[in-house]
From TrEMBL:
Domain of life (superkingdom): Bacteria
GO molecular function: nucleic acid binding
Protein name: Integrase catalytic domain-containing protein
Organism per entry: Microvirga vignae
Species lineage: Bacteria, Pseudomonadati, Pseudomonadota, Alphaproteobacteria, Hyphomicrobiales
GO biological process terms on file: DNA integration
Gene3D superfamilies with a match to the protein in the record: Ribonuclease H-like superfamily/Ribonuclease H
Residues in Integrase catalytic domain copies: 41-199
Length: 234
């Protein structure tokens, strides 16, 4: 095929070559995997260093809040009827209670439910840094995006979202994810095993609180263009 292209000056697309090979029962072409520039994955070194948080709509009146630890993939989901500041506060209370390590940073997209002043003030009270990502950069919250996709495929597709016992069923799924489900990114371990592995390196709550500098934090706004300007006025 390469010789035909060189001798006759033809330029054949990969799709054309692929269809021709398939029609004649020959081995198909394997396309090289393309990596998008600027989307290199990262992983924080210890549990609690950064927790990604997001909200996804499952069906009208059913929203899933999700928080996943960047290092260990330990996850806390919650079901709410709407994505609001009040529900964000309620979910944060649950998150603090259920994460088995202190949280240093919360990372979210620019959803307004995360920018309520009461939400940000509560994070400051807990000595947790609020770190929203820039617009149009979902790869920065890639772990929570991927785990919500997995939730849809492995959990929500198997249940009725309107079931009165949906919260109990989601808790069962959460336990399976954190304690039993093997994760390729963790070498086949469940998240709890990674947490135990790094236990000696994970700081205690007192150390996290002592290193928190509230003077470097501020109330942020969802508008990404205005937010940096307000930072200059602080």
């Amino acid at each position: 095929m390469r010789g035909v292209r060189q001798s006759e000056g033809r330029s054949l697309s990969l799709d054309t070559i692929h269809r021709t090979l398939v029609r004649h029962g020959e081995q198909v072409l394997k396309r090289p995997r393309r990596w998008r520039k600027g989307t290199r994955r990262y992983s924080r070194p210890i549990p609690g260093d950064r927790v990604q948080m997001d909200v996804c709509k499952i069906t009208p009146g059913v929203y899933q809040y999700t928080a996943i630890d960047d290092c260990s993939r330990y996850k806390v989901p919650g079901v709410y009827s709407r994505a609001t500041g009040a529900n964000t506060l309620d979910f944060l209370e649950r998150l603090i209670e259920e994460m088995p390590f202190p949280i240093q940073r919360i990372q979210t997209d620019r959803g307004r439910e995360f920018f309520a002043e009461a939400v940000q003030q509560r994070l400051m009270d807990w000595a947790i840094k609020f770190r929203p990502i820039p617009p149009r950069s979902p790869h920065l919250n890639g772990k929570v995006e991927r785990t919500q996709r997995t939730d849809r495929e492995e959990f929500w597709d198997t249940v009725d979202p309107r079931n009165p016992k949906i919260e109990a069923k989601l808790s069962e799924w959460q336990h399976h994810w954190n304690w039993h489900r093997p994760h390729t990114a963790l070498g086949g371990q469940p998240p709890i095993d990674r947490i135990c592995e790094l236990l000696d390196q994970t700081p205690l709550g007192e150390a996290v609180e002592a290193s928190y500098d509230v003077s470097r934090e501020r109330i942020r706004i969802a508008n990404h263009r205005l937010d940096p300007a307000l930072a200059q006025l602080k």
